[in-house]
Amino acid sequence: MNTENYTDAHRIELNCVGCGHSVEFSLLDLNPETKLVCKECGKTYAFTPELADQIKRFSELLSTVYACRDLLGQASIGVKVKDEEIKVPYQLLLTRLNSLLSLKVNDQEMTFRFRVDPTAIFDKKTE
Known about the structure:
Elements: E1 11-15, E2 22-26, E3 35-37, E4 44-46, H1 49-67, H2 69-72, E5 76-81, E6 84-89, H3 90-95, E7 100-105, E8 108-114
Antiparallel strand pairs: 1-2, 1-8, 3-4, 5-6, 7-8
């Protein structure tokens, strides 16, 4: 995959459940031994193999969206309102979305934010 406009895809943030501050980490460094520490409150985070797998698969989904960027510029999502269908361009939809993954960890929901600017997907024309 050409990562020229997708360089931040491996950067992920999670909101610390202790203090709410952002804890940033790299998908490239994610393994069972990875321990994250919140710089504000000192809370530590470890990743089970299942959690690491879910985060990696979501990242792969974002990579697939990037790989299909030439198709997405021509695609739309149809929303039916009463008897009328409104077509929302997929490209517009992506510019309004944040890439978030919410997972339940020890009975607590944690939100992971993938630091991908969806508008960067369409910045350059594809070959």
